[in-house]
Amino acid sequence: MAKVFITGANGLLGTNLCEDLLMAGYNVKGLVRNKQKYVGEPHQRLDLIEGKLFMDFTAVLEDVDYVIHVAAMTDQSIPDYLEYWRINFNATSQLFHAAIKCGVKRFIFVSTANTLGFGSEINPGSEQRKISQLFAASLYARSKWEAEQYLLEHKDRIDTIIVNPTFMIGAYDSKPSSGKIILMCWRKKIVLYPSGGKNFVHVKDVSKGIVRSITEGKNGEKYLLANENLSYKVFFKKVNQLTGQRPLMLKIPNFVLSMLGLVGDTLRRFEIKSNLSSVNMRAVRIDNYFSNKKSIRELGLDYRPVDKAIIDAVEYFKKNSHNMR
Predict the structure, then answer these.
(1) Closest among 203, 13, 229 to 118, alpha carbons compared
(2) Residues 54/14, Cβ–Cβ less than 8 Å
(3) What is the C-alpha to C-alpha distance for residues 271 and 280, in angstroms, rounded to an integer?
(4) Percentage helix, strand, coil, to 5, in the chain?
(5) Which of 113, 256, 269, 283 is 20 to 30 A from 28, comparing alpha carbons?
(6) Has residue 324 got a pLDDT over 70?
């Protein structure tokens, strides 16, 4: 059976991906910083390798058929673009060339939906839309977009697939990462929500889409892995209903978000880390919506309801609250 190498194997997506690849019969090598912190189940066909993204991967990749690059700098608080570029572009290009040198058959890059143009509920964003002016100003999205362009410029040297997940929810979110949005409204008496919305997807569907792209994806193509377009208000209500809660829900006025963004911009000018910025505060005021039609058509995906993703995430948090870090 073919062998797959995954970076970021102990994250939300990486852990689910290891599980699904093993279930599909692949042999898996997973890059982790610390084997002891891997939250997935051990398996005889799973080889965890301790290391960092700037190590020499040629020895690791010499018997690998496919590379799936999941690891990234996603922290929204960093004020310096070079930190994003170093991980999301430079480390990606080095791994990419190591894969070419070792004769890897296909390189799959996990990017973000925000490198594509978003749309409305009636006219959602797609793989054909160019990055929006808003997210071109996001240091994270910009670094991922530049990596995409570089990889696609060299797609003649190795089969290259770009997958663009939207906001992932599900189990194995041990940090937590995107699951923080659930913790913002779960077990709270008052829930504050912004005026915008985004596309939510079960992490298992993203994982399944990546597994399918190994055999079904086309060289040089991008695939949005997306599902339900929901306002933040509707999403928080879903969490409340599914967990049997009835908190007071209050909308955050747009002018307050704008002011917070300006405060964050000021902090960043002094190189102070902050999740606040004008870009981030504007992002939560828009309908950041996308379509999954291409992934359904070309990868044969069948998406499960976001309700299921919320339930799986909440159950994981309940069972592993003592391990959350």
Answers:
(1) 229
(2) no
(3) 17
(4) 40, 20, 40
(5) 113
(6) no
Give one word for 26, left, alpha or beta, with left for phi > 0 and alpha for psi -120 to 50. Answer: beta
What is the average per-residue pLDDT within 202-221? 98
Question: What's the CA gap between 191 and 246, in Å, rounded?
Answer: 10
Hey, what CATH class is 3-323 in? Answer: alpha beta
Answer whether residue 321 shows pLDDT above 90. Answer: no
Name the band, by pLDDT with cuts 50, 70 and 90, for residue 241: very high
Kindly report the three-state secondary structure assignment for every residue of 226-290: CCEEEEHHHHHHHHHHHCCCCCEEEECCHHHHHHHHHHHHHHHHCCCCCCCCHHHHHHCCCEEEE
Helix (H, G, I), strand (E, B) or coil at 163: strand
Q: Provide the 8-state DSSP code for 119.
A: B
pLDDT (0 to 100) of residue 320:
85
* Rounded CA separation 210/217 (Å): 9
**Ranges of each domain in the chain:** 3-323
Half-sphere exposure for 265 (CA within 13 Å, toward CB) = 13
pLDDT value at position 1?
82
Please state, in angstroms and rounded to a whole number, the distance separating the CA atoms of residues 116 and 114. 5
Rounded to 5 degrees, what are φ and ψ at 253? -60, 145
pLDDT at 177 over 50: yes
> Is residue 247 over pLDDT 90?
yes
- Alpha carbons 217 and 109: distance in angstroms, whole number: 12
The vertex-295 CA angle with 292 and 300, nearest 5°, equals 125
Smallest CA-to-CA distance from 49 within 63, 38, 39 is with 38
Q: State the Cα–Cα distance between residues 277 and 75, nearest whole angstrom.
A: 13
Strands 228-231 and 197-202, bridge-based pairing: antiparallel
